[in-house]
């Protein structure tokens, strides 16, 4: 395990987790952010990047992805350690400090934890295929990190939404052939994209395999030999491909958080509104995951909770110091050396 010392660990790099880096940084507190997604921004990046948000103070409207980019810029001076593609799994308390293990074998040592985990860890919805894990990250991928891997290859892409359609169109430029699989005749993707898919079928770049259900993936040592599909009458169709990209959307799950001995109410973490502290000393919760009377699940509420929790962390990080409240207009941007 790789040890990473910091003052405060922030679990979740959604808008609220990102702004927490700023609030902590202004108090001279170092932080480390962990998210199981491969990019920052939480729901804003994963669910609605192009949608305009109308209730961020001082922005009459701002696209979700632009808000994330601005937050990234705002926290840059504080040089947070950002660990992506890994889930926080286990928390151990040692001498009033914490050791937190991630799924990528990192061990973060922190004095406090701020949980900004939204609805829980985001992960891909996986097709219900037995033994799928032996192919994952070898020949089956739930997102595209390296497009070149698919150059000149035969691909199966499954799903009926925008991600499946957009990637099929994009990868058809460089792949040898794409089988586009969906269990219904009608796709949910944008009408323009659906038209493009059928145009590419005429050009023999894409074969539309609809309506077909996945039956099984056959292969050995993580390599796919073929994918078996069934039509609505149960008739079998075999397709030979090098890679399979199922795009069935994302879902979130509190998962490991349920094991951290925190008081949970309606699947949310109960906090003291005056500090955002959970039922465990030194562990705070803010943003969509926290609950108290009158809680509003909004980004602006989460930003305010970020400030409250950061101030509440101060005495735990610097027990020997007294916190003097100052406006940012007075102190400017704190320099963290
Ligand atoms: P999230 O954005 O959910 O981020 C939490 C992050 O934590 C995720 O990336 C997740 O992967 C990560 N995580 C969870 N558990 C773990 C773990 N164990 N290990 C590692 N990482 C973990 N709000 C508004 O204020 N105005 C709007 O107009 C608005 N419009 C919306 C439109 C849509 C379509 C949706 C879905 C939401 C909208 N919201 C809006 C709500 C807003 O997006 C949320 O309130 C906000 O994203 C909450 O931010 P967060 O940082 O608390 O959590």
Topology:
Elements: E1 2-5, E2 8-11, H1 15-26, E3 31-34, H2 42-46, E4 52-53, E5 62-63, H3 64-75, E6 81-83, E7 88-94, E8 97-102, E9 106-110, E10 112-115, E11 121-124, E12 154-158, H4 162-171, E13 177-181, H5 191-202, E14 206-209, E15 212-220, E16 223-231, E17 236-239, E18 243-246, E19 250-253, E20 264-265, E21 268-270, E22 283-285, E23 290-291, H6 299-317, H7 328-331
Parallel strand pairs: 1-9, 2-3, 2-10, 3-6, 10-22, 12-13, 12-18, 13-14, 21-23
Antiparallel strand pairs: 4-5, 7-8, 8-9, 11-19, 15-16, 16-17, 20-21
Helix pairs in contact: 1-3, 1-6, 4-5
The protein binds flavin-adenine dinucleotide (FAD).
Order of helices and strands: EEHEHEEHEEEEEEEHEHEEEEEEEEEEHH
Helix coverage percent: 10-25%
Helix/strand structural class? alpha/beta
Q: Low-confidence spans: pLDDT under 50, at least 5 residues?
A: none
- Kindly, what is the distance between the CA atoms of the first and last residues, rounded to a whole number of angstroms? 26 Å
Task: Let me know the largest β-sheet.
Answer: 5 strands, parallel
Strand order of the largest sheet: 6-3-2-10-22
Give the total of beta strands. Answer: 23
| Overall radius of gyration | 23 Å
Shape verdict: elongated
Q: In what range is the share of β-strand residues? A: 25-35%
Give the count of helical stretches. Answer: 7
Which compounds are bound in this model?
flavin-adenine dinucleotide
């Amino acid at each position: 395990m790789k040890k990473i010392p910091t003052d405060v660990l922030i679990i979740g790099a959604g808008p609220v987790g990102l702004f927490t880096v700023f609030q902590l940084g202004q108090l001279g507190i170092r932080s480390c952010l962990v998210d199981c997604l491969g990019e920052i921004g939480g729901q804003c990046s994963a669910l609605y990047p192009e949608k305009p948000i109308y209730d961020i103070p001082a922005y009459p409207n701002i696209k979700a992805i632009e808000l994330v980019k601005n937050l990234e810029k705002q926290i840059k001076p504080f040089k947070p350690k950002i660990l992506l593609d890994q889930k926080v799994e286990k928390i151990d308390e040692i001498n009033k400090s914490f050791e937190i293990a991630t799924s990528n074998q990192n061990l973060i040592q922190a004095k406090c934890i701020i949980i900004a985990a939204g609805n829980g860890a985001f992960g891909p919805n996986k097709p219900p295929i037995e033994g799928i894990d032996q192919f994952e990250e070898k020949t089956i991928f739930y997102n595209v990190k390296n497009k070149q891997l698919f150059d000149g290859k035969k691909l199966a892409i499954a799903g009926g939404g925008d991600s499946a359609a957009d990637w099929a169109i994009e990868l058809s430029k460089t792949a040898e052939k794409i089988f586009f699989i969906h269990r219904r005749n009608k796709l949910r993707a944008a009408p323009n994209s659906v038209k493009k898919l059928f145009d590419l079928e005429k050009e023999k770049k894409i074969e539309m395999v609809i309506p077909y259900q996945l039956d099984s993936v056959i292969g050995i040592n993580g390599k796919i030999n073929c994918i078996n599909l069934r039509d609505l009458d149960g008739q079998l169709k075999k397709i030979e491909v090098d890679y399979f990209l199922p795009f069935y959307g994302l879902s979130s799950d509190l998962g490991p958080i349920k094991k951290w001995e925190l008081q949970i109410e309606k699947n949310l973490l109960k906090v003291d509104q005056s500090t955002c502290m959970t039922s465990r000393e030194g562990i705070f919760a803010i943003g969509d995951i926290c609950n108290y009377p009158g809680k509003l699940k909004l980004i602006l509420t989460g930003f305010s909770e970020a400030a409250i929790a950061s101030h509440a962390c101060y005495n735990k990080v610097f027990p020997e110091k007294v916190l003097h409240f100052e406006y940012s207009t007075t102190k400017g941007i704190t320099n963290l050396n």
